[in-house]
Amino acid sequence: MSGANFGVLDTFDHNVQSWNSYKGRLQQYFIANDIDNAKDATGIKRRAILLTALKEETYKLTADLVLPKQLDSVPYEDIIKLLDNHFTPKRVGFGERHKFYAAVQQAGETHTQWAARLRGLTAYCSFSNVEEALRDRFIMGLLPGLEKEKLYAQNISELTLAKAVEFAENIRCARAGATAAGITPSSGDVYKIASNKQQNKSDGKVKCSTCGYTNHKVSECRFTNYVCKKCKVKGHLGRMCPSVKYLDMNYDGEDDDVLAE
Q: Looking only at Cα atoms, what is the longest distance across the chain?
């Protein structure tokens, strides 16, 4: 190979860097510069590149690992195996499962980030059904709140991890939307908002903000001039009164008389 090398290969210090990550970068460096078994059959060049990239303390550690041999007499692949065995901890199945089952969602961690972190923890767990284990731990490890409460009430036979994440996100978005609108609904109302959002998305209907029905536009509502019995303000029925944050079609019946007209 002639000319400048491609890529930058930093030195490796085992005290502050991950061996597995560095080994991956080393392999990419070899690929970029056409250094392979065909062009470096003996591995001498790859060994030289690796050893010159080691920090002094890491070089000494590597030399100790190959004793009583000398580094320049040990094949490249053997040095890699020695470093793999030294720097890569042995994975014990139950130990890894303990980490998985002990994991919980952290404050500030989104639902998608929590699900992704969990998936990474399953790498050495050897689950027979990874998706089921992920779904269960995702829900059980959620921070206390409405999302967790509502997911516990779902049909377990129909719930997948993807659906659980989407469901939790729908409720979170509903709460954020209500807060942005200056609304502070109860937990039950937030769930109704999330459910109504999904329903309205599927049927394409928009609820009238004056009376709550979906068979007409707000401009066509016959209750536009009606005075609300809850806040005494004209323009909506009590069931849609914003002053009491009443966000669903359930109401105490005080509008029955006008609706019957």
A: 100
